[in-house]
Amino acid sequence: MTILGISAFYHDSAAALIEDGRIVAAAQEERFTRKKHDPGFPANAIAYCLEYGGTTINTLDAIVFYDKPLLKFERLLETYYAFAPRGLASFLTAMPVWMKEKLFLKRLIRDELKKIGYDTKRPVKLLFPEHHLSHAASAYYPSAFEKAAILTIDGVGEWATASIGLGDGKNITILKELRFPHSLGLLYSAFTYFLGFKVNSGEYKLMGLAPYGDPHSPDITRYVSVINDKLISAKEDGSVWLNQAYFDYATGLRMVHEKKWEELFGMAKRNPEDELKAEHCNLGLAIQIVTEEIVIKMAREAQRLTQTENLVLAGGVALNCVANGKLQKSGIFKNVFIQPAAGDAGGALGAALAAYHIYFGKERVVNYQNDAMEGSYLGPTFSDLDVELMAKKYKAVYTRYDDFTTLSEDVAKLLASENVIGWVQGRMEFGPRALGGRSILGDPRSSEMQKKLNLKIKYRESFRPFAPSVLAEDCHQYFDYDGISPYMLLVHPVVKARRKPLPANYDSLPLRDKLYHLRSDLPSITHIDFSARIQTVHRETNPRYWQLIDAFKKLTGYSVIVNTSFNVRGEPIVSTPNDAYRCFMRTEMDYLVVGNYVFDKKQQPEWEEKDNWKEEFVLD
């Protein structure tokens, strides 16, 4: 049985293909169109999945869309009615789109599918599970657990903004829901907006900014109190009530009532390019603290309701790796699995899996060691011919290696000499993280690497941290964690033995002074609070990446390297060799490694294309 899952028309459109319950292929549309968070119909992603699966649109057993549009429309109407006469401008903006397109989404999907060969005379079954069921399925079914509590947390689906469920065998039972307009995800997004980052894409920046707050500052206590006293009421079961007098997302065109927030916190709303000040960092830390407390409460409630030792997580808030690390350390659950494509893109996969196990009633077989995500390497790959055609197109100069062992040893030497390497190998990752398939790599021992990567390669804010990729078997040597984290979704501290002493006034230092203080013998991946967002690299799922890090270990004694996504700010992660070479030439990367081919920047012809990417790709 072959099923196609689709997510589209909000943000992070994607497609996923499963065959007899096995995940065959999955990819986001943005990687093909080169439009960050592309919300359009994922025609390119669908075409890739079908081609990789060796099937066609008309031989599928079902096509599954990741939410119920009519239920979402019901929520929209009821919300406008409940808040009337507020929200008239937003109502007049939204209704024409809904009346023209979204009410007839089934027809719209079929029209789009016709463009890629869908036969309306023999229509494939089209299914619509609820949004949070898609999230729940995306986390539970690929996990290695026979039985697990399921926690989904995001902005909003149809009505639900969070849910607690139980996965048992092939069945998922939703036990509890939090409903719009009360939402932990929307609360976090409101602070994302107020602090000058883009909603639905900049939340991870807010998470990265939070550690720059001074935990000893009285402002932190004051901000947390204001949040809990004025903005929300958080219950012991993790449910939250948001005071809509301060928010505008339900019926307006903005996230918050800015003047009210400015009065509450004693600061103006920050604009995207404004300097980051101590007050911004402290407010970021305050909302991170509140978020972590609520997530822990939700997890305790999930454990109470399910009485299981396993937890699976999905939804946009599940990408908050700091909260995930705290949750794991809490010991509420013995085992935790987080769907690597936890946001809406992963909803495509969850929708397909939900249809297979719930609608069609197919049994679930758990016969894999860690999970069924295949390391999340589910996207397109490339051939030697693809690389050589790209090189011919750009008259690029390369060295081709016949032996990957020699290549990995030579690249390890380049890394150890503080070169920045673009690394493209095998299938592209599914989800927001680069995991050694489409990555930019550096030496974690370098005190200058973080600055170089941010300012000369990624062209983004200097405060943003970088993640370490570490051999799974050596993780405990560097981090206060002895488990696995293959998807870069857990934050844990660098071990104390590797830390450097801090000055007595460290917490009160300005952001830049904190940023460039030497904190450990791995300065490029040690965040200012000694934490790191860990990716454990496993020989079974990515042998080439494992071999490179192993070569670096043999050369330097360190089995960890810097890993960041292969893109510049505001650009989707690269997919093809062509994407990679263009990004390589438009940045100050030193070398590009695509499969067995190595490109030295110094040997490349002058880049003649007019580069307007800084205007094309705005801050995300």
Beta-strand percent range: 15-25%
Instruction: State the CATH class of the largest domain.
Output: Alpha Beta
Work out the number of β strands: 21
Structural class: alpha/beta
| Distance between the ends | 39 Å
Q: Please tell me the overall pLDDT.
A: 92
In this structure, how is the largest beta sheet organized?
Answer: 9 strands, mixed
CATH homologous superfamily name of the largest domain?
Carbamoyltransferase, C-terminal domain
Q: pLDDT below 50 for ≥5 consecutive residues: which ranges?
A: none
Give, in spatial order, the strands making up the sheet with the most strands.
13-21-20-14-15-19-16-18-17
**Overall spatial form:** globular
How many domains is the backbone divided into? 3
CATH topology of the largest domain: DHBP synthase
